[in-house]
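User: I want to check something. If I give you two sequences, will you return the structure for each one separately, not as a complex?

Assistant: Yes, each is folded on its own. Here is the first sequence with its structure:
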Amino acid sequence: MSLTNGSAPTIAAAPGTSLAALDGEQARRGPSKPVDLGVIAEIREQVAAEISEARRADGDNVIEEQEEVARTEPVIWRYLDAHARSVIASGGTAPAVDEEEAIFRRVKAELFGLGGFEDYLFDPTVENIFVNGADKVFVNRSGAFAPEAMPPIAESDQALIELVNRWASRLGRTERRFDVSNPRLDMRLPGGFRLHAIMEVTQRPTITIRCPYHRRVGLDDLQRLGTVDPVMVDFLTAAVRARCNIIVAGGTGTGKTTLLRALLHEVPAHERIITIEDTAELGIGSFEEDHPNVVEMETRQANLEGVGELTMMDLTRECLRMSPDRVVVGEVRGAEALYMLKAMSQGNDGSMCTVHANSARGVADRVRGYCAEGIANIPMHVIDTFYRTAVDLVVHLRVLPDRRRVVASIVEVEKTFGEGIHYNSVFEEVPEDRARPGVAPSQYLLDRLRVAGMQVQPW
């Protein structure tokens, strides 16, 4: 038993209020030893009740969260001590010190942090977390062929819902809810983790968390990972500096956001970048030495009265009044596509976005559909004209059978005036590998790339 007087021992405590400052020791430690979720729930509820009573006693006095965390830690240890005494009194064996420390960290994380998810969010090898109910938990690790099954994340589905609802109410840029009346949630957690949660329309609450890189990612990093080769790096670097409008396309989990982030790091530091995302994920503003003039915009759901919603289309339209050098839409998937094309074609050259598509040539069909959502009965030839005028390059990614993410093709959108949309396959798709040089770019594009510093010309 670690306590006899209710005071807290000195331990390497997990971060309490913010995941932005990633704790190195926690990251190296990895998942804690599995503990009794029933004990955690019991102590959590006892501590939460005492915290609530203390808040009522404080009245109108504002208590900083950091101070409240400090006041709560000895309370957790006091209830842990009481639990250990109860176990001994009933003839059992008191928890070992490391087990008590694990319970302490977990209770503290559930009250002020991200609960049992912190074990995985602090693990640098974890790329995705999948929860299909409190006791069906899987993680995707970098380089692994298949997801790995993990212990339960909460004592019940209801406890899981309550945990996520606490995140929604206090961790996002705007207050959100996750309950029966609002069964869908998209938000960015502290540290850049992207969460999607849904309930009611699924048999059990389902949560997906995507874990971004916590460091700067450039094209040279993607070259080391095998996503691109040196020729592509030279080409894409010149394309960004030549202010080509670029669409990054691919299926789910192919690395679209990572590639977009790498492309943005090639943008000159003096340029004003405005990013628009459903849930902020790019995180370009975190690297002020590379991009000091960045505005990151994020959608907002309606409030309890049903007003105040800001959609991707609203933000894309709004950003055109903010004098951007480049507009970046994290993921185009609706009526904002038309405004994105407008941004690309009215002086904001060098703008970029991502689109879900199975091929580079299939992006145009996606965009046609999205534009039609925004304006009813808009003729297809009008959308095609917008597309041809606005888009210079489409970069398509895919995942190979060996789990490598690669650039599968790069096409140039020809600036023709006929019917339909025509392409040059600058880097063409090959089976089971990265794309290889195909047809030379048009003279217009080639001249722009040369001026921007392209060194290698493999065509």
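And separately, the second sequence with its own structure:
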Amino acid sequence: MKKNIAIVCGGDSGEYEISIKSAAVVKKHLSPEKWNTWLVLIKASGWYATLENGEKVPVDKNDFSIQDTQGRKIKFDAVFNAIHGTPGEDGKLLAYFDMLGIPYNSSGATCCALTFHKDFCKRIVASNGVHVADSILINKRDSIDSKEIIKQLGLPVFVKPNNGGSSVGVSKVKNDNELFPAIEKAFREDTQVLIESFVEGREIGCGVVEHKGRMLVFPLTEIISKNEFFDYEAKYTDGMSDEITPAAVDEAIELEIKATAALLYHRIECRGIARFDFILTKEEEIYFLEVNIVPGMSEASIIPKQAECMGISLQKLFDMTLDNLF
């Protein structure tokens, strides 16, 4: 018997449009022989599901159910989480599903809350012996001493919202005059700002997925931005970055990056699909950059390309993450 799957998307962050695109690709490729699927838009202003005839119906938040055109109640057997940013990637929505006992394909609420908070996540990563860039966390009410920040971290630095994704609100600061405007830009996205020292090197992404207790580590991808760094434009505009899969790195380095990604996947208690991004320095040191618990899932996104390199189709990839739940 086919299972009813809610593909949740939207959210309340600057990643809204990317989430909508990811969800459309997921719905297109999930096996129709195995799943009945509905797109469910989640926003603070309202939760709505789209029926097959295009009609939008409200979601009953008491049990996360909807009614079809005949007034029949539809309850969901599981959720495919395609929300980038809040509330799907920071753990809030997942805690709600936990309370209702509805399984979902992504990492759990605790893992998502941890990884969404960049500073907390870096502390956990560093405690496992993985290099991280030096950084300073500032809150909105903190007094800011730009000279002290530059003295500690040097220049250039990256200024970013502590909670957020897709490089929204992120700036690369190369002189002291740029620091305060960059901090103000990041504060427009979050109440905390993380300032990180610049680590020069190649950016390498590594996807990991667990299927029926077996961990699969995908081929590496080198990300080469045509902008100053891999910002929002470079991530989502055709031709603004080169994403080379598999990355041209020595076998020993490849194994070390994959082993590091697998270690962190386990230690942070990830589930489903996650993508770990690293900086590989000229000295062949590996620095943790970030982990994406709900990575992009369009045909042009990094994880689908890595899976394709392994001979795994989008349908198989998406089905695998739901198969874990039943």
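Because they were folded independently, the notes below concern the second chain alone. The chain has a mean pLDDT of 91. Residues 3-104 form a domain with the Rossmann fold fold (CATH 3.40.50.20).
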